[in-house]
């Protein structure tokens, strides 16, 4: 090997080593290359998104808390919240039936981790099964032992523990409800969640603003629960979702670029008699490999599309699968964008000047 070739080899090795050792031990920043989670700064983790970049890079793993960054003194509907679709359908969730589970998952973290990382809306499918209330995917409209995940009480106790340990946080549950009369009331009572219940009587009926977040916290009314069964609002005091919220089409139908149509059960997205807006953005059949791209620029583009469809209203809830998978900022950046738009008219909540609501934005 010639001297020149040796020098080229040494230069290449030196460059490789300098890049490989450019950051580590918690010093790697957003989109820096990494080899393990420990390389990345707080709030980031090491992730490979083949559709977005080569190798592994540090991407976001937690939300920016809008209440702590700015304030919690505005009505609830003036804020946006990360929402996990089918939050119960978790990779590796322990079996609770005698047969293997044969169904798909939508998340990779426990309920506790989802909440700790900033999810404040949880979509849950509740069924009567095995003499109790369970979280389950349906097949033919019913829960089966091979599509069941676990008793609802187990999940609800995680939510109770979070609310107990975080007395200024609010959690919203959106239930696809297949439970008979009083079943939900019993399981919420057994889980110790009724003391946090936000009452239907305090919910706006004609598109008015919701109570102030600070008042909800002061009264300890920090759990909002919506059901898909209309009669339960009168019989059990569980809010009927479509009386208060509009929602776009879920699944592949809600992922068409430039189009944002309402879900069949929802009134029109621009129906301002409903003061909460939810945007779904996930495939009909979840795909881990596609989700890191879906949860990034494509998601933010859809939020802008749905803003127009909803009568120039930004979403309060944005629901995704595999919420931590992204090309960088992902669903966390999407929520930062929404809160920036809602709270001060800026493109990112971090650009909001404290105390401003009129588009006073820092670079």
TrEMBL record:
Residue spans crossing the bilayer: none
GO molecular function ontology, one term from the record: phosphoric diester hydrolase activity
Secretion signal, residue range per the UniProt entry: 1-22
InterPro entries: PI-PLC_domain, PLC-like_Pdiesterase_TIM-brl
One of the GO BP terms on file: lipid metabolic process
Gene3D superfamilies in the record: Phosphatidylinositol (PI) phosphodiesterase
Record keywords: Signal
CDD domains linked: PI-PLCc_At5g67130_like
Record-linked Pfam families: PI-PLC_cat
PANTHER family linked to this entry: F21F23.12 PROTEIN, PTHR13593
UniProt-recorded name of the protein: PI-PLC X domain-containing protein At5g67130-like isoform X2
Source species of the chain: Herrania umbratica
Chain's gene name: LOC110426096
């Amino acid at each position: 090997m010639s001297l020149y070739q040796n020098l080229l080899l040494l230069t290449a090795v030196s460059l490789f080593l300098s890049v490989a050792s450019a950051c580590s031990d918690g010093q790697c920043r957003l989109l820096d290359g990494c080899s393990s989670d420990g390389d990345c700064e707080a709030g980031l983790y090491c992730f490979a998104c083949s559709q977005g970049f080569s190798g592994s890079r540090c991407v976001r793993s937690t939300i920016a808390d809008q209440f702590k960054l700015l304030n919690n003194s505005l009505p609830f509907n003036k804020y946006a919240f990360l929402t996990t679709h089918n939050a119960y359908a978790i990779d590796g969730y322990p079996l609770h039936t005698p047969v293997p589970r044969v169904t798909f998952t939508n998340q990779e973290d426990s309920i506790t981790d989802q909440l700790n990382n900033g999810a404040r809306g949880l979509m849950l499918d509740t069924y009567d099964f095995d003499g109790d209330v369970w979280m389950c995917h349906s097949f033919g409209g019913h829960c089966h032992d091979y599509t069941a995940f676990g008793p609802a009480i187990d999940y609800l106790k995680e939510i109770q523990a979070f609310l107990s340990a975080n007395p200024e946080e609010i959690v919203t549950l959106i239930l696809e409800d297949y439970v008979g009369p009083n079943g939900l009331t019993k399981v919420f009572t057994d889980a110790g969640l009724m003391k946090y219940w936000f009452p239907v009587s305090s919910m706006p009926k004609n598109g008015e603003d919701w109570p102030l977040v600070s008042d909800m916290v002061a009264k300890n009314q920090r759990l909002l629960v919506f059901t898909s069964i209309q009669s339960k609002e009168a019989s059990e005091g569980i809010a009927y979702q479509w009386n208060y919220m509009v929602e776009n089409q879920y699944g592949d139908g809600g992922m068409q670029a430039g189009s944002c149509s309402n879900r069949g059960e929802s009134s029109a997205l621009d129906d301002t008699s409903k003061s909460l807006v939810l945007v779904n953005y996930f495939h009909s059949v979840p795909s881990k490999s596609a989700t890191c791209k879906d949860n990034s620029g494509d998601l933010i583009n859809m939020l802008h599309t749905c803003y127009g469809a909803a009568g120039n209203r930004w979403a309060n809830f944005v629901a995704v699968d595999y919420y931590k998978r992204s090309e960088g900022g992902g669903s966390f950046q999407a929520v930062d964008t929404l809160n920036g738009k809602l709270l001060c008219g800026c493109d990112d909540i971090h650009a909001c000047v404290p105390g401003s609501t009129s588009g006073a934005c820092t670079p």
